[in-house]
Give the backbone structure.
Amino acid sequence: MKDYKNNRIFAMLFGYILGDGWIDINHLGGVSGDLEALEIIKKDMQDLFGNIGKATILCRKTSSPKYKIKGTSNQFSFNRKTSRIFIEHGMPTGKCVETDYKLPDWIINGSLEIKKSFLSGFYAAEGTKIIPAICKGFKTLNFSQSKRIELSDSLEYLMVNQIGSILTELGLKYSIERKEVFTCAKNLRIRLDISNSTQSLLKCIEMLDMRYCPRKQVLFNQAYDYLYNVKILKIYGAVKHAPDFVTYVINNPNCSFKTPLNNETPKKDNDVPSSLNNNE
């Protein structure tokens, strides 16, 4: 029997399905996302589990006046055998917004690599893209979850006690926003905003693997390149007139993660001086 609890890909899949997948009460499961992402997820699942069913990727029109949703979605389904592996490892079934669930012990008490992988999959599904702020810097990276208002304690425990603790353990500072929203019924939404200091952004980008959301990965790569080559060098006085992020990307179309100017190897997160936070 495979040891899924110590498998990074399984942890990443678990996080993604928790955010942008489903397993219904009949143990039929599936995931949705960008076409490129679904191809990667499908291959990872086949490599890990073998036969997951036909898993045909479909593009469907979606319309729900009840939930105010209209558009198209890409998705594929996987078989009950695969669903049951996830269920046995703590995946909730049914509508997550209506379900009281907690992260399983193998994630909470797992290694840092397992926690990073889970968070990577979850953020790929639920997290925001990194984009420039109107004034300067970048908008805050964040992700959120919602539950029915009567499950507020369950959501608080999941987002703050569990996922918040993982962020803290990984050295990422965050703030919490709680808001009541109405989507078919009264819900509580809890959003975790990760600090957008230069040091925090570099650490977050280095830590999170966005293989399950290539669009986010491209932006992560560009932002890392920009932060290292422009913002840090500006702080040290090596660059006097730094371009904004959009101008930098236009002028450096091939910029990518860990390929700074002059082909030097960028400093790892723990080599970035703590004084950066004080100089922003």
